[in-house]
Write a structure and sequence with these properties.
The protein has 386 residues and is an alpha/beta fold. The chain contains 16 helices and 13 strands. The strands form three sheets. It has a six-stranded mixed beta sheet. Strand 10, helix 15 and strand 11 form a beta-alpha-beta unit.
Length: 386
């Protein structure tokens, strides 16, 4: 089943303007498929293929001879020195769409990459398949449970989906993250840390607490968190405390970005067993945040807001230093408005206030808060308020 990715339109536009574009995201998310769909004629090089790697022994000369063709370079973070070579090649012939770079690691964590092509490259993140990209054949509930990785989402059975996700997790733990960043990682430590993050999904991150539990130093824990985040597997949601009048929490929250991976790390076998599991509320919260992240504009940033007394917004949409919308995420389709939510509204006075549920109808409460379901919010509300 071919799923049209929303990012494709943006990428085609940027290919017409920028000499190079980068498509970044976790492994197995569909970057190669999307990159090849952008153009009908191209030269494809995979940095995990020894034959392609051998072609780049003299990379400058090889790529210079391809100056009139589009070159797709996959897993480009495995050869970071390429970025410094691309700069003079681009400057010698600055035509749009020469290079499509595909990468599974955040440029900020690959030494020498993030600034080398400044002004010459457009960075774009390809997330797992989003709720608004689903074809009619796939139910929203299936997407929440299995997550958005194509192989897991489109598997014929839950068993096949679980098997793929389990293999994906093992691959990342035993090989992929260490290879992507060119560093040594302890697989058992990484697996235990990832599992702990899953059990504490949506909680405040306390590096010292993790360090004590894992028997390592806090800097080691923070380093592993950086790599999981740099591999697009973990999200750190920062707290909002600009111009605040009260004492606020200043530690970030952490989320497993893909709920399919979250549910496998928690060993939840099927959608029905998700209900009644203590992690279901945090799972839904992280799912909503991730879907909003995929559709937000670059001008909109995401935060949470919590006072020392416990009053909280699950999600705050901010532009510049101005909160524009506060969101409470509820699993119940008949939610009540909490006192803490009202208190936070008085603190920040955002223009818009929402409670997002799985399937409720859209209506206004007496406090002028809009209650709505996630799909309606993504398709009809979010585009209007950004």
């Amino acid at each position: 089943m071919l799923i049209t990715r929303t990012l494709a339109t943006q990428l085609r536009s940027r290919l017409k303007k920028s000499p190079a574009i980068a498509i970044l995201g976790p492994r197995q998310v569909g970057k190669t498929t999307l990159g090849k769909q952008l153009e009908s004629h191209y030269i494809y090089l995979d940095m995990e293929n020894p034959r392609d790697l051998a072609k780049l022994q003299d990379a400058y000369t090889f790529l210079e001879n391809l100056q009139d063709q589009i070159v797709i370079i996959d897993e480009v973070q495995l050869l970071p020195e390429l970025f410094s070579l691309l700069r003079p090649l681009i400057d010698a012939k600055r035509t749009p769409g020469r290079f499509i770079l595909l990468g599974s690691a955040s440029p900020e964590l690959v030494k020498g990459v993030s600034e080398t092509l400044a002004g010459r490259i457009s960075y774009n993140e390809l997330c797992p398949i989003g709720l608004t990209e689903l074809p009619k054949e796939i139910a929203d509930d299936q997407h929440w449970f299995r997550g958005g990785f194509p192989e897991a989402l489109l598997s014929e059975t839950d068993t096949l989906s679980k098997e793929w996700t389990d293999d994906f997790i093992v691959s990342y733990v035993e090989r992929d993250l260490a290879k992507m960043f060119g560093i040594e990682l302890a697989p058992i430590l990484l697996k235990n840390f990832w599992s702990m993050l899953a059990h504490l999904n949506g909680n405040l991150f306390n590096g010292e607490s993790f360090a004590r539990s894992l028997g390592v130093s806090a800097p080691t824990v923070n380093r592993y968190l950086d790599f999981l985040e740099g591999g697009y597997l973990i999200r750190r949601l920062p707290p909002w405390f600009v111009n605040a009048k009260k004492r606020l929490i200043k530690s970030p929250k952490t989320y497993i970005r893909d709920t399919g991976i979250l549910h496998r790390l928690l060993n939840i076998p099927n959608y029905n067993d998700l209900f009644g599991h203590p992690a279901i509320g945090a799972s839904w919260e992280g799912y909503v945040i991730e879907q909003i992240y995929q559709l937000k504009t670059k001008q909109t940033e995401l935060f949470f807001y919590r006072t020392q007394t416990g009053a909280e917004y699950d999600l705050l949409l901010v532009q510049g230093i101005t909160p524009i919308a506060c969101i409470e995420i509820k699993l119940s389709n008949a939610p009540t408005v909490s006192k803490g939510f009202i208190n936070c509204t008085q603190d920040l006075e955002p223009k818009y206030k929402y409670i997002i549920t799985p399937k409720s109808e859209t209506y206004h409460t007496s406090n002028n808060i809009v209650v709505t379901n996630l799909r309606h919010f993504l398709l009809n509300i979010l585009p209007e308020i950004q």
